[in-house]
UniProtKB/TrEMBL annotation:
Name the record gives this protein: Uncharacterized protein
Amino acid sequence: MERLTLNADRCWFKSGDPAFDSYSLAPELSSFSGKPRFLLVPTGQPEARPLLVAEGTAGTGNVSVYGPLLSEEIGQRAESDIARWQSGSDDCVS
């Protein structure tokens, strides 16, 4: 999950991708539940309800992606990016 989170930060936010201007990344990698994750939340609202969650299961390569953003084009792109990163690629595609 750390690599996926770093890729999301680099490809979506540090690159200045305008598709993600309205969102902020909220990593939650230290989890006692065994489910490290990162969230996309509205920019400037870190406590807001997450719009997208990418959640791993410790000790496995399984990653679940869910949230209301998936019903939008940007959510589908995010899901595709996460799947690509999960398969071993670190490429950014816009």
